[in-house]
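Sharing in case it's useful to others searching the archive later.

Someone asked me privately for the predicted structure of Disulfide-bond oxidoreductase YghU, so I'm posting the question and my answer publicly. Question first, with the sequence:
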Amino acid sequence: MTDYQLPKIWQWDDENTNRGGNRPTAGSRFDQTLPIGTAPFQVYSLGTPNGVKVTILFEELKELGVTGADYDLYKINIGEGDQFGSDFVSINPNSKIPAMVDQSQTPRVDVFESGSILVYLAEKFGKFLPSNIHEKTETLNWLFWQVGAGPFVGGGFGHFFHYAPEKLKYPIDRYTMETKRQLDLLDKVLADRSYIAGENYTIADIAIWSWYGQLVLGNLYEGSAEFLDVSSYTNLIEWTNRIAERPAVKRGLAVDYLSID
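And my answer, the predicted structure tokens:
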């Protein structure tokens, strides 16, 4: 039992002037000049599940020989608060990675939110997002499913299972149940189709694999694969391993990040 009593008005009791760390306010905290390279796309990101969605898609485009898909990739160290600098906030007011600038357009196009970036690139280059209305809609159904479902895995299960300073049964049970429900859903969907949205590899696979594939592989939270009994989701495991072997996926995970300093 807890002795916490709900106040009438919540007050934050961790006020600080550090560059990093969460606050209940938005906006930039310091002046910043982000580097700008010569490639058509400037990507400011980190190798998190949301971040690797973008690098994987770029590498998949390059694997197909698509011209104009070159990108400069800069590391935004969220632990140091780089995402709260003025230049980054001008691209993404929400101060979350990844963020991207398409400087091949005049004026340039700023894109933020990983799902939005995937759609932008897929539509721009005509790859990994079917044009057929039924297949396109199914792809977007699952892309937005991931965008909505992912926080239960990361901010919910991952936080309380791995990052929280103490292990609490109620939130761990709550978010483990939901995470396993999502894994079971994906396993059932993949029982009669090769990829998430059908028989073609799409941005839905990239988005979902970056979170759930890496979770199944044990790459997100130490001990979580065993805890979640991921070996019981056989269809999901087969799909996960198949995508993990794609050369572009391997490159998207191993890509080097340039410093912003």
